[in-house]
Every structure is written in C-alpha cells, then in structure tokens.
Design brief:
354 residues, Peroxisomal Thiolase, Chain A, domain 1, ten-stranded mixed sheet, globular, Ketoacyl_synth_N, Thiolase-like, Beta-ketoacyl synthase chain length factor
Length: 354
Amino acid sequence: MGECYINGIANISAQPTTNADEFLEEIISHNTSIFKAHDPNYKEFIKPAAMRRMSKSVKMGVTAASIALNNSGVEMPDAIITGTGMGCKQDSEKFLEKILYDDEQFLTPTLFIQSTHNTVGGQVALGLGCKAYNLTYVQGAASFESSLIDAQLMLLEEPEKNILVGGIDEVAKNSTLLHKLDGQIKEDDIDVINLLDSKTGGTVHSEGATFMMLGSKKTDTSCAKIVDIETISKASSEEAEKHIETFLGRQGISIKDVDAVILGNNGDVDYDHYYRNLQTSLFSETEQLCYKHLIGDYPVASSFGFWLGCKIFEKNTVPAILKVNSTTAKKYDTVLLYNQYLGKNHSIALLQRC
C-alpha cells in the first residue's frame, strides 16, 4: 500500500473530544446502557436555518468534517468517503411514524430523502460545494475501515489527492431499543466506567463521528501515518491472533516493535474473549489501551481508536483512564488497533508517528 498520512482529524463522542488542546482531562460519567454524544456548539459550524432540518448524525458529521478540514488546511477535498453502520436512524423513524400516523396519506419526501445512509456524505458535499467522488460504506463494524481502504486505494492511483474520510452513527429512540431486545445492549443500566469488568452479555450503546483528511504526502499538520489496514469477515479468537501476526509480519515487524495496542473491549462477556485471549498471549508484554468504557459502542466506534492514536502521538502520553494493564511503553511511535463485533467484522490497523 502507498503512503497515507492523516493530515487533520476531528472527533465527536460521548466525551468532550472536540477541543484540540485537551486529551481526556475531563471525563463524563454515564450510568445508563444507552447514551448520547457530548454536543459541541454546532452553531459555530452550521447555519441555524440549515441545522433545524438536520438529524443528530448529520450535525455531528458536518461539524467533525469541518473541524478536520480546518485542522488540515485543505479547503476543498478531492473525494468524500464515509462509513456508517446504521445511517440516519432518527429520520428513518420519523418517516415510518408519518406513514403510520397519517395512514400513508400526504407524505412529504423530505424525511425519506434524509434517512438514507449516504445523507451525511451528501450534506458535507453540499455544504462545501464539492462535486467530487462521494461514496458511503455500510459494512457493519468495519464500515469506517472499509472507507479508509477505499481512500488508500485512491491515493495509490492518484497520490496528489486529498481525501476526506469519516465514520458516523447515531442513537435513535426506537430502533436502538431493538438491539436491546436481541441482546446486543445490556438489559440493566450500569456505571459505564466499569464496563470492562462486566460479567453479562451485551454492551452499552452510544453515538459519535470521526472525520480525517488523508493525503499521500506528509505536511506540517500530519499527525499519523496509516501503514496498513485489514478487515476479516469472521474468525475465531485463535484465527484472529494468527491474522494479527501475519498482518505485522507483512510490515516486517513483530509485536515487540509495537509500543501500544488499542483494543475494542466492550464488556460483552460472550465476545470479549477475543480481546482477553490476545491480552494474555500476543499482547501480554505490550501496553494495552481500551476506550469503549468512555464512549460506548456503535458500528463505527473503532474510528475513535484512530483519533486516540493521533492524540497519543501528539501528546506523547496516555491518560490513565485508558490503561488496562501495568505495562507502560518507553515511547509512542507505533500503535496497533484491533476491533471486532459479535465475532465478526474484525479490523486491524497500524499507525506510526510521522
């Protein structure tokens, strides 16, 4: 894969992460199994008249994209690629409710148009006046990584381009509760900070958005280099370990060359063994970091790990709230990310300081 640098990044999550000068100094405690993102002042980035018609995912996406663009110094991207697991659920629900309550009469198309998965990418493009390549990936928990792989391939063919890549998912009133019915979300409310110690099935659900500007050349704003990304549809915990070893070997390095690993543990007793197996074997001597006890889980939650990696490189330190073992790296030059959901949609990524 060719050179790929993150030249600007922004994140909106259940923690206050939009201030570029701060790195998880302030932690918001959540005591419920479903919670929303911490909202920045959207009025600073979106005109009030336009914001009235936007769902939460669109507001988060447009704002995060705007911040990432500002951080990169790029005014107009050459492509916009987004990933989402569930799309604009809030507008989908409103449209379906209109069908029921109005007996399928006098329906306006607005909510239907705004309920599609590619709404965020479209709204970002409309706001910028960008008529370039615009695509949305809906690949479950690997949606964000699929978008990044597409961007990498584009940069390989056209290295002069600047590509805006994002991941967005939102909480909705009714459809989110369906995940509770099928056991994906914990039945009882819990103190989310203690999520990783949970002994029950399911996880906690939230929402968020991450956008980054990618380019093939290192700039003054570059915060990390994406060395490689891989996704695996389905694997056992033993197979996942072999995939990671092969992935690292392809880069000509071993786990000893990795300074820290960022894992997607989400407190689901039925599937966290994927991470525990690695924590006690392959990663046993590596600094281990987790984040879903801060931001919850959602299809593109793994995008938060990329923001974490960039902040670790920038600050050259790790907040104690992220650490889950006693090992501390001497430096932070190479970070490995691994995530899976329900034993599927495994993703592996390698970041390096640039």
